[in-house]
Specification:
The chain has 363 residues and is of the alpha+beta class. 34% of the residues lie in helices and 17% in strands.
C-alpha cells in the first residue's frame, strides 16, 4: 500500500520533485531552507510483500534544496517563498553629524565674537558653521538627515558670529584710527608747542643779544662819558640830561687881604674860577652843586678860605635858560705844595648824579 504523494514531494516513481521558491509552503511541510531528515531503514528483513502486489524499491530521501546566495538586491526573507513587501526593509541611518558640528562651531564663533578682543579669531568657526550648516540642511532636504533645527541653529549662530567678528573688527579699526588721530593731534600740539618754545627761545636770545649790545653800548658810552668827565684845567663838559655846561680855568695865585680869612702858615693860596652855563630851555637847579671838592696828591681836602668882602662870589642856586655865571673859590695848599691837585664838581639828581673832575698843577 503506497502513501499519497504531496505537492512538492518526490513523485511516486521515486524521482525528486522540482523546487518552486515562489510556491507557498504546504501545511505541515518543512521549509525549503531546512532539508527534511532522511528516513531511517528498519533493521532486519522487512515484512513480505502482500501476495499480488509487486515489490517496490525502498524510498530514498530527496536531496536538500539549496537556497540561492543572497545578492545585493535580495530582500529580507528571500528564499522563504514569501513576497518582499511582507518583510521589514532596512532603514538607512540618518547623517546628523554635520548639523551638530555646525551648531557647535556656531556657538564657538558667537562666544568668541562677543569677546571683542577675539574678533580676529571668531570669523573662522563662524564661517565653518555657516558652510557645514548649509550642507546639513541640504542633507535634510534629501532625507539623509533629520536634525533640521540643529543645522539651522548652526547657520544662524555662524552668521551671528560673523557679524560680531565684523563688528569687533570695525570697532577696533575705529579705536585704532581715533588713537592715531589723537597721537597726530598730540604730535601736532607738541610740534606747535615746540615751535612756540623755539620761537620764544629765539626771541629771548635776540632780546638778550639786544640787551647785551645795549649794555655794551651803555658801558662804552659810560666809559666814554667818564673819560670825558676827566679833564685838565681849562676843559669843559656838558650834562646832556640838563644842558648844564661847566668849565674850570687854571688855578691862579692869590694874595689874601684882610677881607679873606687868614690862611695857615707856610701854605700856598690859589684862586679857582668855575663857569656854569644853562644851555637848555628850562631853569636849572644847582642845589648840591655849589661846593667844589679840592684835594691834593694825597687825596686830602685843601683848606678853603672865606671872603667876607663880597668880591669873590660862589656858584648860584639856580640858572635861567642861557644864563652864565663864573664863581671863584680860594684854597690854601699845605706846605706850599706844588704837586697835582684835583677839583671835583657834582651835578644831577640822586639817580643820575655824575662828577666832573679837573686835575693838574696848581701853578
Amino acid at each position: 500500500m503506497t502513501e499519497p504523494v504531496q505537492p512538492g514531494t518526490a513523485h511516486a516513481t521515486g524521482g525528486p520533485a522540482a523546487f518552486n521558491p515562489w510556491a507557498p509552503p504546504a501545511p505541515g511541510a518543512t521549509p525549503a531552507s531546512e532539508p527534511a531528515p532522511a528516513p531511517v531503514a528498519a533493521a532486519g528483513p522487512g515484512p513480505a510483500a502482500a501476495p499480488g502486489i509487486p515489490e517496490q524499491a525502498p524510498a530514498t530521501a530527496p536531496a536538500p534544496a539549496t537556497a540561492p546566495a543572497p545578492g545585493p538586491d535580495t530582500y529580507a526573507g528571500a528564499g522563504t517563498g514569501m513576497p518582499f513587501w511582507a518583510f521589514p526593509q532596512p532603514v538607512p541611518q540618518a547623517r546628523n553629524g554635520l548639523g551638530v558640528a555646525a551648531m557647535t562651531l556656531g556657538i564657538v564663533g558667537a562666544v568668541l565674537g562677543l569677546m571683542i578682543v577675539f574678533f580676529w579669531l571668531a570669523w573662522l568657526p563662524a564661517l565653518l558653521a555657516v558652510i557645514l550648516g548649509a550642507v546639513a540642511l541640504s542633507h535634510v532636504r534629501k532625507g539623509l538627515a533629520n536634525n533640521r533645527g540643529i543645522a539651522l541653529a548652526g547657520v544662524i549662530l555662524g552668521a551671528v558670529g560673523l557679524l560680531l567678528s565684523v563688528a569687533g573688527g570695525a570697532f577696533f579699526a575705529v579705536q585704532v584710527y581715533n588713537l592715531r588721530e589723537d597721537e597726530r593731534a598730540v604730535t601736532a600740539v607738541s610740534d606747535a608747542e615746540a615751535g612756540r618754545q623755539r620761537d620764544l627761545v629765539a626771541r629771548q636770545r635776540e632780546e638778550a643779544a639786544r640787551q647785551l649790545e645795549q649794555l655794551e653800548a651803555e658801558n662804552k658810552k659810560r666809559a666814554a662819558d667818564e673819560q670825558a668827565r676827566k679833564l685838565s684845567f681849562g676843559g669843559s663838559y656838558t650834562y646832556e640830561e640838563t644842558g648844564l655846561k661847566v668849565s674850570l680855568a687854571a688855578p691862579q695865585p692869590f694874595v689874601p687881604d684882610k677881607s679873606v680869612s687868614k690862611a695857615p702858615e707856610n701854605t700856598k693860596v690859589v684862586l679857582l674860577a668855575v663857569t656854569v652855563v644853562n644851555t637848555g630851555s628850562t631853569p636849572l637847579s644847582l642845589r648840591g652843586s655849589q661846593l667844589l671838592f679840592v684835594k691834593d696828591a694825597n687825596d686830602q681836602l685843601l683848606f678853603h678860605l672865606t671872603d667876607i668882602s663880597g668880591r669873590i662870589n660862589r656858584i648860584p642856586a639856580s640858572l635861567d635858560p642861557g644864563q652864565s655865571v663864573t664863581a671863584q673859590e680860594v684854597y690854601a695848599l699845605p706846605n706850599g705844595s706844588s704837586d697835582t691837585i684835583s677839583v671835583r664838581f657834582d651835578h644831577g639828581d640822586a639817580s643820575n648824579r655824575r662828577s666832573v673832575t679837573w686835575a693838574g698843577s696848581p701853578g
